Structures are given as structure tokens and as C-alpha cells.
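Researcher: Here's a chain I'd like modeled. Treat it as a single chain, no partners, no ligands.
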Amino acid sequence: MTTYPAFANCHSHAFHRALRGRAVGGADFWGWRDGMYAVAQALDPDLYHRLARATYAEMALAGIGAVGEFHYLHHDPHGLPYTDPHAMADAVIAAAWEVGLRICLLDTCYLRAGFDGAELAPAQRRFAYPDAEAWASHASTLASRYADNPAVVIGTAIHSVRAVDETSLPVVAAALPDAPLHIHVSEQPAENDACLAATGRTPVRLLADAGVWSPRTTAVHATHLSADDIAILGASGSSVCFCPTTEAELADGIGPSVALRDAGARITLGSDSNTMIDLFAEARGLAMHERLASGTRDGWTAAQLWQAATSDGSASLGFEGLGGFELAGSVRTAGASEPLWAATAADVVPPPDLDPAWVQAELDAVIAEVWSRT
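Model: Modeled as a single isolated chain. C-alpha cells:
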């Protein structure tokens, strides 16, 4: 067996794990989102802790050493703060800790339903704060709570330019100025169209004008970009997180990963909706999608993919060095000189203190309970 550096999963919504294998419907992202909202409404801190713990245990079994949790389930289902306003964040941080996973908790600012000023949907109320200053105070106290824990990084996130207005963007960017800052960007053409109509700019340009892009910033998805967008992200030294299995599952499209890398952006990988938890699959998906879009096979080498999945990913989460995992020989890896192209999460030797049978049983039980509440 050979030891490899642990993966960094740079974009996760742990509660989406309950959607895997369920017929949630929706012809596109927007239809799927309604099913996702139903799951979000079912969760309280205790149930969310169990679901996140089992999901993170599955990540640990797949050779992942750290996760970036894009966290916006802040309040109760009515949009009211819990007695401890950090109860939901504490639940997922404890879940990671209990299965030996480092976590970058990306405390997410969410203020509005969209550019048109429409009222928040009932499910969105638990995501939202009244203004950016209130959210920033929340993020600051959460960061203080975990300041002395080396296994926890508290970062920040802008949910999207739909959910955070232009005047609030600099407030969010300045809230924790030395911490990672992540943003959903241009995942859907409809988002770009709405942003152009409301501001006359693409989401990437709007965020650039707000001073958001820098080496500590990660754009998530970045699927539908202009040449100017690519140049902005590359020149800023930002990271871009691709989530190929989710982007394919939601029919999002194929982003310009090689063009971004060549422009100077660092590429990272995430499992996002956790349709599957397998960074081998995400890395291969990145390369294969590029081949389909470009018609050439030389966009990504195995060495470049390992860098995206490990060192560049851990840097975007604020960690240095995540340990490693052992890769067992299998039918899949037989004859392979570059295991990345052959191995799957099933080939990773389980951590000695984590029982795969327990993880499977707990996922079965907790997901059944989630759906019983929807």
C-alpha cells in the first residue's frame, strides 16, 4: 500500500447528503432547489449534528482530511435565532471533530431572495440576517469561539450576488479580513442575466468592483464566465472550486478550468451537494469535462489534479498539511502507474478508529429521520 496526501474537500453542503438517491424532481437547478429547501426545513441542531457527522465520516473514509462547509443554516425554521445563535454551526463543527476531520466553517452571509426585492421564501428565512452588519457581528463572535482550535478555521462566505446586495459586499469581505472567503459565482446563466440586468455587470465584475477578489478568496463553480471574468480571477490570484459531480447532476454546465488555471487562478475541488463523496471522481470529472468541452486530452495532468485536490485545496481552507491516507490495491488500480485515474473512494484504507458499517447504518437511520420530518 502507498500513502498519499489527504484530500481537501473545498465545498460541501453537508445537509444535501440527505438528497442522494431521492427523487426530488426539478428539470434544472431551480426546480431541484425546492426539494433541497424541504430538507433544510427539517433540521434542528441535534439532527443536523447527526447528519453532518455521518456525512463527514463518509468523507474521512474517502481519504478527505479537511472540509470547507459552506454554512448558511443559521436560525430555526421560522427564521428566529436559537438561544445560542451559533447552535447550528457548533453542531457541524462538533460533527467534524468527532470523526477526525478538520473543518473550515464558512459562515455565510445571506440577506435577500434576489435582485428584484422579492420577499424571502419561508425556507430562506433561516438563512438570512437583517443586514450585513448583524451577520458580521455573528461571524466575529463565532471566530472568537474557535480561535484556539487548530482543527477549526472560521472563514466567511457570500452566498451569491443574488443573496447579498452590492453595498453589503465590502462589509462581508472585511468581516474577517485574514480568513478564507468563499462565494458561489455564475453557477447558472439565469444568475448572470439577472446580475447584468440589475447592475450592468457580471457577478465576477461586480465582486471585483467591491474589492472581493484576492488570494484568500475562492469562487465556487464559476461555470458561465466571460473572457474578462477569467482575466479578473486569474490576475487576483483567487482560487476557483469546481464540483464536477454536482455540476453534472444539476445540469449546471462545464466551467473553463484550464483557462482559469492558465490565467493564474488556483483550481480546487469540492463535493458540494454530496451526490457522491469521492475526490478521485471529482478530479477525473474535472479532466473529463474539459476534454468533452475542448475536444483535446491534454488539459490536465495527473500531477496537476493531485495539486488541485490536495495542497491548493488545503490552502484555500486555511490549512497546511492534512496528513495522508493509504490506497489499497484493487481490480481498479491493477496495472495503473497513475492511481488517480483508476482508484475510487472504495480503495482507500479506512481509518482504524472509524467503522464503515457504523457509518452506513447511521446514514440510513438519520436520512430516514430527516425525510420523516419533511
